[in-house]
Amino acid sequence: MAKVTTKQRQTKPREEVPAEAAGEQALSGGAALLADWNASLVDFYVRRWQKYWQYPATLADLRSLTEVADSLVAFEKELLADYADQADEFQRIVRGEHRGTGETPVRQYEALLLKAQSDAAEIIQQAKSQAERIMASAQASVEQMGALGGGGAEDRKAANG
Known about the structure:
Elements: H1 6-10, H2 19-59, H3 65-95, H4 105-149, H5 153-160
Helix pairs in contact: 2-3, 2-4
């Protein structure tokens, strides 16, 4: 009978994971990381895009070049802080620290995509409204010029023959 050492008694046999299961675990972990990364990136870009889009509207309320310069400096500081926060978020994702929402990364990603679509639709609607205001203003200017000049393109055509 062979002598069994203490070390042999203390070590438990390794549970071998089939190669397919190990690959699936790695794939699901990689997919979760990628989904979390993409969701974070989409959220970041949407937030930054909204701030870029809204910034010109804040300029209309400013009365002096000093206020404009101060506003630009504040905007740049906010931009740098946002990028630093996003870098920290990427580090958190790579380290595997998940948010405490209880949702899977895929669900979080889906929710962020839906929010991004909603935000994009809102921005498009704002752009349409702004374009309509610009067109109305241009039309009013053309009508005003026509009233002041005594006629428009039709009168010039008739005068030219």
